[in-house]
Amino acid sequence: MWTHALGFTAFPHFGGFLGWLITRKEVPTWYETLKKPSWRPPNKMFPVAWTTLYTSMGYASYLVWRDLGGFSSKAVVPLGLYGAQLALNWAWTPIFFGAHNIKLALLDIVGLYGLVLGTMYSWYPINKTATALMLPYLTWLTLAACLNYCIWRDNPEKDKKKE
What we know:
mainly alpha
């Protein structure tokens, strides 16, 4: 069973690695030209935070999978919500850093926030530890959503999508 735990724990890092391939080019160029709030975390904090959060959410998904007996009919909603939030999570980086579409990234993160809440709600009766492991992620998303909003608000000329 430890191989399942390892696989579930490692899986979210796949999208994080792909996102890093985009951000490593865009942070020193485009991102540094944006107006950002004074309270934003330093750039070096983001890879540390995401490594921790991806590990935590991955292991949490393993706990839910294990407690539901694998990919059963009971797992469709809880793991489906998890998969959907992970897809929106992975989509945010190419939208924000790749396409420079700050507004669409903000819409993505708002949807992501709702899916994470839904995931946690569906996980709570299954495994309270798994739900608790998602709390730091939700906290970080709150900060990230506020940061995304402030960047969108303060950089209207830098948003690729103009209306």
